[in-house]
Amino acid sequence: MGGTLHFYEKGQYVRFTTDERPYSSPNGGYEQQHYSIKVHSYQEKNNKQIPRKVSAIWNLPDGDFEYWKGPLKDNEFKGMDR
Fold it and tell me: What is the C-alpha to C-alpha distance for residues 49 and 43, in angstroms, rounded to an integer?
Protein backbone atom coordinates (compact mmCIF):
# COMPACT_ATOMS: atom_id res chain seq x y z
CA MET A 1 0.00 0.00 0.00
CA GLY A 2 1.35 3.40 -0.91
CA GLY A 3 0.67 6.64 0.87
CA THR A 4 2.08 9.91 2.13
CA LEU A 5 3.73 10.56 5.49
CA HIS A 6 3.22 14.09 6.85
CA PHE A 7 5.67 15.66 9.32
CA TYR A 8 5.88 18.74 11.55
CA GLU A 9 8.75 21.14 10.87
CA LYS A 10 10.86 19.53 13.62
CA GLY A 11 10.50 16.09 12.03
CA GLN A 12 7.72 14.59 14.13
CA TYR A 13 5.42 12.30 12.18
CA VAL A 14 1.88 13.69 12.34
CA ARG A 15 -0.26 11.87 9.78
CA PHE A 16 -0.36 9.16 7.13
CA THR A 17 -2.77 9.39 4.17
CA THR A 18 -3.60 7.02 1.34
CA ASP A 19 -6.21 6.40 -1.33
CA GLU A 20 -5.25 2.73 -1.62
CA ARG A 21 -7.20 1.16 1.24
CA PRO A 22 -10.46 -0.71 0.51
CA TYR A 23 -13.47 0.48 2.52
CA SER A 24 -16.25 -1.99 3.40
CA SER A 25 -19.34 -0.23 2.14
CA PRO A 26 -22.56 -0.44 4.22
CA ASN A 27 -24.30 -1.45 0.97
CA GLY A 28 -21.97 -4.45 0.63
CA GLY A 29 -18.75 -4.82 -1.30
CA TYR A 30 -15.58 -2.76 -1.14
CA GLU A 31 -14.54 0.55 -2.64
CA GLN A 32 -11.36 2.62 -2.51
CA GLN A 33 -11.71 5.60 -0.17
CA HIS A 34 -9.33 8.17 1.27
CA TYR A 35 -7.90 6.96 4.61
CA SER A 36 -5.72 8.62 7.21
CA ILE A 37 -3.99 7.91 10.49
CA LYS A 38 -3.57 10.94 12.75
CA VAL A 39 -1.12 11.12 15.66
CA HIS A 40 -2.48 12.74 18.86
CA SER A 41 0.42 12.18 21.26
CA TYR A 42 3.99 10.91 21.42
CA GLN A 43 6.26 9.00 23.75
CA GLU A 44 10.03 9.05 24.02
CA LYS A 45 11.90 5.82 23.37
CA ASN A 46 15.69 5.63 22.99
CA ASN A 47 15.86 9.44 22.66
CA LYS A 48 13.28 9.41 19.82
CA GLN A 49 9.71 10.69 19.77
CA ILE A 50 7.37 7.99 18.46
CA PRO A 51 3.58 8.03 18.11
CA ARG A 52 1.68 6.90 21.23
CA LYS A 53 -2.01 7.64 20.65
CA VAL A 54 -3.50 7.66 17.14
CA SER A 55 -6.79 7.72 15.25
CA ALA A 56 -7.70 5.70 12.17
CA ILE A 57 -10.08 7.71 9.99
CA TRP A 58 -11.99 7.07 6.79
CA ASN A 59 -12.23 10.40 4.94
CA LEU A 60 -15.53 9.71 3.19
CA PRO A 61 -17.42 12.02 0.80
CA ASP A 62 -20.13 12.56 3.46
CA GLY A 63 -17.57 13.39 6.18
CA ASP A 64 -14.86 11.79 8.29
CA PHE A 65 -15.53 8.52 10.10
CA GLU A 66 -13.10 7.88 12.97
CA TYR A 67 -13.40 4.15 13.47
CA TRP A 68 -10.55 3.66 15.96
CA LYS A 69 -8.69 5.82 18.48
CA GLY A 70 -6.29 4.59 21.09
CA PRO A 71 -2.74 3.90 22.24
CA LEU A 72 -0.22 1.91 20.24
CA LYS A 73 1.64 -0.97 21.87
CA ASP A 74 5.43 -0.92 22.20
CA ASN A 75 5.77 -4.00 19.98
CA GLU A 76 4.22 -2.07 17.08
CA PHE A 77 7.46 -0.06 16.90
CA LYS A 78 10.04 -2.85 16.71
CA GLY A 79 13.01 -1.82 14.64
CA MET A 80 12.52 1.91 15.25
CA ASP A 81 15.11 1.96 18.04
CA ARG A 82 18.03 1.59 15.65
Answer: 6
Q: How far apart are CA 68 and CA 65, in angstroms?
A: 9
Q: How would you write the pLDDT of the chain (82 residues) with one tens digit per residue?
A: 689 989 887 777 889 999 989 999 888 999 999 999 999 998 888 887 888 999 999 999 999 999 999 998 865 555 444 4
DSSP the chain: ---EEEE-TTS-EEEEEEEEEEEE-TTSSEEEEEEEEEEEEEEEETTEEEEEEEEEEEEETTEEEEEEEEEPPGGGGTTTT-
* CA 58/CA 32 separation, integer angstroms: 10
